[in-house]
Amino acid sequence: MTRNTIAISSCLVFMTIFAVAQGDGWVSIFDGKTMTGWSKKAVHDGNGGVWEVSGGALVANQEPDHKGGLVGTDKAYSDFEIELEFKVDMPVDTGLFLRTREDGMGYQITIDYRKDGYVGSLYAPAEGGFIQVNKLWENYFKKNSWNKLRARIEGQPAHVQAWLNGIKTTDFTDNKDRYPREGYIGLQVHGGAGAWGDTSRARYRNIRVKELK
């Protein structure tokens, strides 16, 4: 057996092992290089915010006139889990949107890293505000570092759960069809001068989804 044959065989073995390891249903929805599969949404009185890919992360900023909006997946999702890592500067008002409608409304897991803000709570835009508030988030939030956020939504009315760095922060079962059974996944840039610092950024990476059957 030649060295080339051995190298090719080793590569095939590695690829097979990797394929099995990824056979748990999780799919990456951000390649770390481009915004393929994502598009800006002109919602919430903005044009979507300013987004770029830098250092393997999806980086968010307000527009020059303090407007924002969402960047969202081109694909719609129904029952699913999502995991991602985020790193935010102070102050930043952002969040993860689930089952988002075309008007930008959906269940939001908050990432409001600012005075009187909350990370990991559940918010319903235009539907009464906070649904569940976790006031202990600072106990397990990592300042100036990457944090892991996981969320799960299933059923209709929806059952929504969220975890911040492995600690459950939200567990809510709705009693009405507040949002559609299916919608896009969104990441927010909140508009307004007080919602975002002049040099602040929100960064997202390692975004993956597991659809629930």
Q: Which terms summarize this structure?
A:
disordered N terminus, 8-stranded antiparallel beta sheet, Jelly Rolls, about 210 residues, single chain, 1 helix, 7-stranded antiparallel beta sheet, mainly beta, 15 strands
Question: Could you give the topology of this structure?
Answer:
Layout lengths: L2 H19 L4 E3 L9 E4 L8 E5 L2 E5 L7 E9 L2 E9 L3 E9 L6 E7 L5 E6 L4 E4 L14 E8 L4 E6 L2 E7 L9 E7 L12 E10 L2
Antiparallel strand pairs: 1-15, 2-5, 3-4, 4-15, 5-14, 6-11, 6-15, 7-8, 7-14, 8-9, 9-10, 11-12, 12-13
Would you write up a description of this structure?
The protein is mainly beta and 213 residues long. The protein has a single domain, classed as Exo-inulinase, domain 1 (Jelly Rolls). It is 9% helix and 46% strand. The chain has one helix at residues 3-21, and strands spanning 26-28, 38-41, 50-54, 57-61, 69-77, 80-88, 92-100, 107-113, 119-124, 129-132, 147-154, 159-164, 167-173, 183-189, 202-211. The longest helix has 19 residues, at 3-21.
